[in-house]
Design goal:
By secondary structure, the protein is mainly beta. The chain has one helix spanning 54-57; strands at residues 3-8, 14-18, 37-39. A hairpin with a 5-residue loop joins strand 1 and strand 2 (14-18). The longest helix is centred in the middle third of the chain and has 4 residues, at 54-57.
């Protein structure tokens, strides 16, 4: 059930009331009894949590997904690790006289 905020036009009293969506708006002020008690427009008081919502998915920036490795070598998504081979040594010209 939503919480609605009301304010009295006569005495200025502000109160919150828990009501069903199908309930009629309250028109009589519980403090002074005048008929100027009106429902206010206010921000919703809920938060979307869990995966799939903007606040949780993009709050910390893009994150890389873990790589999956398939057992079949022909369809492997990860490349085998190789070490670079050392550069061949340059031979020094021999000087003979």
């Amino acid at each position: 059930m939503p919480i609605y905020e009301y304010q009295c036009g006569s005495c200025g009293t502000k109160k919150e009331h828990l009501q069903k969506l199908s309930d009629e708006p309250i028109s009589v002020c519980p403090t002074c009894g005048s008929n100027t008690y009106t429902k206010l427009i206010s921000a919703a008081g809920f938060q979307l949590k869990g995966s799939g919502w903007y606040a949780t998915d993009f709050k910390n920036g893009p994150q890389s997904k873990p790589k999956t490795e398939i057992k079949n070598n022909s369809m492997s998504k990860t490349k085998p690790k190789t070490t670079p081979s050392p550069a061949p040594k340059a031979s020094t010209p021999s000087t003979t006289k």
